[in-house]
Amino acid sequence: ETAACTRARLSGGPPLVPSSLVSTPHTDPGTAAAAPLSHLSTRLTVVSDGYCGRILRAPTHGTRKDGHHEFRLRVEGDPETYQPASTYRVVLLATSPAYFRGFTLIALKEGREGTTDDDYAGQFQIIDEDDTQFMTNCAPAVTESTPRRRTRIQVFWTAPPTGTGCVILKASIVQKKVIYFQDEGSLTIRLCEKERVFGEATETPAMECCACGTAKYRLTFYGNWSEKVHPKDYPRRANHWSALIGASHSRGYVLWEYGGYASEGVRQVAEFGSPIKMEEEIRQKVGSTSDGASAGSLRAAPSAEFSVDRTRHLMSFLTMLGPSPDWNVGLSGEDLCTKECGWVQRLVTELIPWDAGTDSGVTYESPNKPTIPQEKIRPLTSLDHPQSPFYDPEGGAINPVAKVVVERIARKGEQCNVVPDTIDDIVADIGQEEKEEDDTPETCIYSGWSPWSACSSATCDKGRRMRQRMLKAQLDLSMPCPHTQDFQPCMGPGCSMEEPSTCMMSEWISWSACSVSCGMGMRSRERYVKQYPEDGSLCQLNTEETEKCVVNDECYTIPCMLSPWSDWSECSVTCGRGMRTRQRMLKSDPAECNEELEQTEKCMLPECPVDCMLSEWSEWSECNKSCGKGHTIRTRMLKLEPQFGGSACPETIQRKKCKIRKCGKKSKETRGHRMLLSFVPTGCRMQPWTIWTDCTKQCGGGIQERFMAVKKRAKGPQMSGCKDRKEIRACNVHPC
């Protein structure tokens, strides 16, 4: 666990199983340190994909390539690069007279298959909920709200953060037929991150890994490079994987990465399969390294163990595909620390070959041809060169050549994961402890187990494979030392120990319209693969049927001639949501033509300014004095705050002077110990003033009142002025 890197010779293995990451990784920075991949045995558990992975792995035959040129996916402005964290308008449209009823739109990191949350790039934003919504079973994808005839939809897409690399935007179309996701063509857009100009600000560094203790992992490599899966120009002699070399490390160290340049160590692995220089480079960065596991046979799945901690929580490795110019597979900077401060439980990744950018050969056995100047590391595609063994004129995806399984087998030290351990976590740790405890006597000293041998069966008949260990010392001759050999059941390459499950198919969709308006034509119907077999195999059942159809015995046609659609009109509003329209002209007899001549769609502009809105002024209050000089006030209420740059609110309270009459004699209040000048008729006895009421508003101008009631009213005509009194004053006039 203290070594810095490990080598193990790689080999072929069982077919690839699409699967997913059980725990979501969390990326964190660190220092330039690395730890080793060391020797280990093999174990494979199938983990099935989610719905996202299944829709992206739709069958490549049938209508996958039919008619997609009638449709186009477009990023407004047609940029070739994206600015990290910037927002773009993405439009999916149909060319007249085509239309579509449904669609799916998705954004993936280049080279990813959509089987884990980390495969998706950026974030979509819905513009019109009547047209679009997020897919229920695949949250990163956008689909139609209701299936209906349409020629255009639009959404916003916010680009991912710096360091994501290239992104693939893909769309699928549902018309009368289904047009599946394309790897190339008008329904696919490839955008790469805009290179940062020197002096520009960099993104905020990621948080450090918060996991505690250490975790031990087993990495198992399964080769799937075979003549059956990759038949074109398959080299029948000398085909091999080079020694596997890798390390666990911090974010400060990069073994290799897409978009970067290969080091001399990577070049020597890529071109010659030699790990010596690579080991030296790791040793220089880390300070120490050690030898790895011994070579395995061509049918054994080589494996290795390595440990990670809070500082060294990333893992990278590579191995050469031989013979080849400079082609490799591997993982780069795979983060095993989760955002919940725990350690990833299981990771399964299919691997496609990548080009190191150091040799320009295009076939397995091309002569050496150094690439000058050196190019960046990039994944191979099916359109690189017609002579390439992976070439496909239709631009389909390259079949993976290998798979890697990384399993957590032990944890040490105090753990601090936020999410409580599951039963699987506990069982995995206990299982490892029980596996390490066997009935070997303490008086027997053994070497470590060798790698598993080749399977005794090269076919799908059951065989077995063996591993051995040496007895180094027997301290007690009276105590036997057993178990120097271990056996395990196995099958040949491409076979599974378990019975594969069957395909689950949908019901047939209704027949399409006949391909002709009269005479004999063709019609078709389709169905979908609802669930793929758990063993990763392809469904062999047909997804499309065609048959002949006859329309009318006597053929005659009345053409429906239409002009092209006009440009969209300006939005009906200058701000906010509005409508826009476009038209086309009918150039033939309208009697038999039912095509629409005008289309309308919603449009959205920046929000409109909203001015402050106030109520009407209240009536003027009574004068706050019953005699002499006083004041009266009036107020109005705030009904709507200003928004989006609207005009500010004017005053909400006004005051003006008032004078009732001159004051007469002075009457002394019985409470409050203060004098009040007011006219009180002789013989009219008053109660003292009440205390002021609470202010009617906390801010922006309110009012307070107090009252004086008649205590005793004398008789006589002069007593008409003997009545209850009220005073009003302004309060809390400060702005809100």
UniProtKB/TrEMBL annotation:
Pfam families: Reeler (PF02014), Spond_N (PF06468), TSP1_spondin (PF19028), TSP_1 (PF00090). InterPro entries: Reeler_dom, Reeler_sf, Spondin/Thrombospondin_T1, Spondin_N, Spondin_N_sf, TSP1_rpt, TSP1_rpt_sf, TSP1_spondin_dom. Residues 37-205 form the Reelin domain. GO terms for molecular function: metal ion binding. Keywords: Cell adhesion, Disulfide bond, Extracellular matrix, Glycoprotein, Metal-binding, Repeat, Secreted, Signal. It is found in: Secreted, Extracellular space, Extracellular matrix. Residues 10-23 have a biased composition (Low complexity). Its main location: secreted. The keyword Iron does not apply. GO terms for cellular component: extracellular matrix. Residues 1-34 are annotated as: Disordered. Residues 205-389 form the Spondin domain. The keyword Cell membrane does not apply. GO terms for biological process: cell adhesion. NCBIfam families: NF038123_dom. This is Spondin-1. It comes from Dicentrarchus labrax.
